[in-house]
Amino acid sequence: MTGGSGFLGKYLAAVETGSPAICTRSSEVDLLDLDAVCGFLRQGRIRKIIHAAGFVGGIGLNLEHPGRMATDNLRMGLNVLEAAARQGACRVVIVSTVCVYPERASVPTKETEMFDGFPSEVTSFYGIAKRTLLTVAEGLSREFGLEYSYVIPTNLYGPGDHFEEEKSHVIPALIRRVVEARESGQDEVVVWGDGTQTRDLLFVQDAAQGIHLALQDRALGQVFNLGSGQEVSVRQMAEMICELVGYPGRLTWDTTKPGGAPRRALDPSKAKELLGFEPRIGIREGLERTIEWYLRSR
Questions:
Q1: Active site residues
Q2: 6 assigned binding-site residue
Q3: Is residue 2 assigned to a domain?
Q4: 297: which of 107, 158, 159, 198 lies 20 to 30 Å off by Cα?
Q5: What's the domain count of the chain?
Q6: pLDDT (tens digit per residue) in 268-282
Q7: 156 among the known binding-site residues?
Q8: The CATH number of the domain where 194 resides is what?
Q9: Which of 11, 9, 57 is nearest to 281 (CA)?
Q10: Residue 119 marked as a ligand binder
Q11: Where along the chain is substrate bound (predicted)?
């Protein structure tokens, strides 16, 4: 399991599968080095891989490091796939991102729409890198028999998420800023965009369960969306967080800053029908758990 020390990786490692899990860290194997990845797979006699590692972050990090978003994520994925193909008898689940989808994709978005247009400009370098891995995996499957599946989790959140300013996505960023505003007595919280942007939010524990389901034989060669099936606006998220935190101030929307894609929600029906995927944690319960963890762990 690559990215085992990351936000999603820790939940992936906690899923009971009946088989031992080996979680790689960058200090143990450099995923940017193909020889290192090949050596690690040979030494560990790895038969199944969940590739969840990546250089990821919020809108700010995407704008600051478009080159690394493209090159690091592409190289890591290519090395894992090529090493798995060389190893033989090695199955790979590629954990992707909603950023692969075109900015003007229909909502909710189906898996078949991935190559119907260009991704949102703000996250396009990350999205194109992850999109390319699907094409590479299919090529390696046809030529070398690589067994793979490709999962696209929607926006994930939950305890243990990245709350640092440069790495945080919408939910942890909002929680951090609202909590700080409450504690410092600020009368407003400024949020990027106009609040109308919508997202499909999935609790990280539900996502981890769904990703493990993609190791099944019936998932081979398939692309799956993992989502809640519900669309929530950034304004709704922010207002709910203010309520749960107990913040009495106002929300101010900075429309001079980018808010990301106008709408983003996935159609999870394929994963539900073929894999039996069914999210269990709703948005309010998930936010309560996340806020409680953040307040306790600071």
A1: 126
A2: yes
A3: no
A4: 198
A5: 1
A6: 999 999 999 999 999
A7: yes
A8: 3.40.50.720
A9: 11
A10: no
A11: 177, 192, 199
